[in-house]
Design brief:
The complex is a heterodimer.
Chain A: H1 2-23, E1 32-33, E2 36-46, E3 52-63, E4 68-78, H2 83-88, E5 98-116, E6 122-138, E7 141-155, E8 160-173, E9 180-194
Antiparallel strand pairs in A: 2-3, 2-9, 3-4, 4-5, 5-6, 6-7, 7-8, 8-9
Chain B: H1 2-29, E1 39-43, E2 47-51, E3 60-65, E4 69-76, E5 79-84, E6 89-93, H2 94-97, E7 100-102, H3 115-119, E8 122-134, E9 141-152, E10 155-165, E11 169-180, E12 188-203, E13 211-229, E14 232-245, E15 248-262
Antiparallel strand pairs in B: 1-4, 1-7, 2-3, 4-5, 5-6, 8-9, 8-15, 9-10, 10-11, 11-12, 12-13, 13-14, 14-15
The chains are: A mainly beta, B mainly beta.
Chain lengths: 195, 263
């Protein structure tokens, strides 16, 4: 029922958008805008009390200003059996072994600079900090998650940006003991397209 | 259910921007010869500083003098990518390029700087995080994503979808809101919110599944916006939910802190 409502809202808003965009800013000059980027990334996710796993994700960013950006991330990894589980038997099985996570982050470009690779050509780059909140589903639990991290990005080509990221996903889990704070760190590399 | 929500969020962040991007392409293809046509402007300031990237941290590598022409290629928040007469391409701050002339001799009407003017008839997306501070969900953490359209400078129609997490329960709620923001041209701008929606309760953890059901709710509250830049604001929100649980109304209060962007 809730989702039917969501779809109705979306459909009405999307159809409204098409009509509204035509009239916007007629007086002002229109330029090709580059506010958004979408990308994919892959890396290692270290799940606390379990193992480090290969993780894949997608992300979408909105450039809010010169300094700030908003980012949505979705990340997924499959947890293999930990040493404890190998000796004592698995704690849970099936889809519960998939670690899936999404978050909304606020990013701040701390240092913007030119990056000199091999040749005389420079690429623009920045070091940024991110923080935000999201949700993690793992072991049958859904938990409110705080994510903090940092990253470095540089423009491979004019619209293709390569990024290296570190994230810490912090949430309270009751899988092994009641309300234990777990830190799940992620190191990843990704590529995104600016449009 | 999670998948549906994730889909919603991905749609929210990706589909709408495409509408904007296509709009930009349309205005390009409307040129006479069918080629993408950049805007040619005459510099009337003593000089324009061209940087290698769209930010104050990137070095200045070229200067365009007064009277020269530049072509504007791309806009990013606060910056324009321009091509000088000699073919050099770089980024110029919006504050510098705002005083330039069109080929016709008229001043170029670059998008204006006043918050309210810019927001009018625009779209906004954002997210918030917060906590229930009273009622049956007291202490539950919550995150929400929203999308809104502003038909008038002081009025926003907004749809939001949210998740919450408590030790025993978890769930989602979605609503359609009307937001009245009378002083949207100010940097600090209060707003009043009214909305109606549905709240879904599930048990946590999944190992003992009990469907606790769906309830309708009305909510109202206050929001304080702080416009950091033309495309970006920080918002603080305090809301009261009136949830119909078994024909009895339960009152719950929530606070949020979040961000909105505009396009």
């Amino acid at each position: 029922m809730v989702f039917r409502l969501q779809y109705l809202l979306l459909i009405s808003l999307l159809s409204g958008a098409a009509l509204a965009q035509d009239n916007k800013d007629q007086a002002a000059l229109e330029f090709d805008r580059e506010f958004f980027s979408v990308g994919v990334y892959a890396g290692i996710l270290s799940i606390q009390d379990y193992r480090s796993e290969l993780a894949f994700g997608v992300q979408s960013s909105f450039k809010a200003s010169e300094d700030f950006f908003l980012q949505f991330n979705y990340l997924q990894a499959d947890a293999s059996y930990s040493s404890f589980e190998l000796s004592q038997g698995p704690s849970f099985a099936g889809s519960n072994r998939t670690f899936s996570h999404y978050d909304f982050l606020l990013g701040y470009n701390l240092f913007q600079a030119e990056f000199f690779g091999d040749g005389p050509e420079s690429a623009i780059s920045s070091l940024y900090l991110v923080a935000g909140a999201g949700e993690t589903e793992f072991g049958g639990e859904n938990n409110f998650t705080i994510t903090i991290g940092t990253g470095y990005q540089f423009a491979l080509k004019r619209r293709y940006v390569l990024s290296l990221d570190f994230r810490d996903h912090i949430f309270k889990s009751s899988l092994l003991e009641e309300d234990k704070n777990t830190h799940n760190t992620q190191v990843s590399a990704g590529i995104s397209f600016l449009f | 259910m999670r998948a549906v929500q994730t889909c919603f969020l991905i749609i929210l962040l990706n589909i709408l921007p495409f509408a904007g991007a296509q709009e930009g392409q349309n205005s390009e293809s409307a040129s006479v010869d069918g080629q993408p046509q950049a805007r040619s402007l005459e510099v009337i300031d003593p000089y324009l500083e061209m940087r290698s990237g769209p930010g104050r941290g990137y070095p200045v590598f070229f200067v365009i003098e007064e009277g020269e022409r530049v072509e504007v290629l791309v806009r990013q928040p606060g910056w324009y990518e321009v091509r000088a007469a000699n073919g050099r391409v770089g980024w110029v701050a919006e504050s510098q390029i705002a005083r330039t002339m069109q080929a016709s001799g008229e001043p170029a009407d670059l998008p204006s700087v006043s918050y309210g003017d810019y927001l009018n008839r625009g779209w906004q997306v954002g997210f918030s995080t917060g906590q229930f501070s009273s009622g049956g969900l007291n202490g539950a953490d919550t995150i929400k994503a929203n999308i809104g359209y502003r038909p008038l400078s002081w009025f926003v129609i907004e749809a939001e979808t949210a998740r919450y997490f408590a030790p025993e329960t978890k769930g989602s709620y979605s609503s359609l809101n009307l937001v009245v923001e009378p002083f949207s041209k100010n940097r600090w701008s209060p707003a009043i919110i009214f909305g109606t929606g549905q709240l879904d309760v599930e048990s946590q953890p999944e190992l003992t599944p009990i469907e606790l059901g769906t309830s309708d709710y009305q909510h109202y509250g206050l929001r304080l916006n702080y416009y950091v830049g033309r495309n970006f604001l920080i918002k603080a929100e305090y809301k009261t939910f009136d949830v119909e649980v078994d024909t009895v109304n339960e009152e719950m209060r929530t606070w949020y802190l979040g961000f909105n962007t505009f396009f």
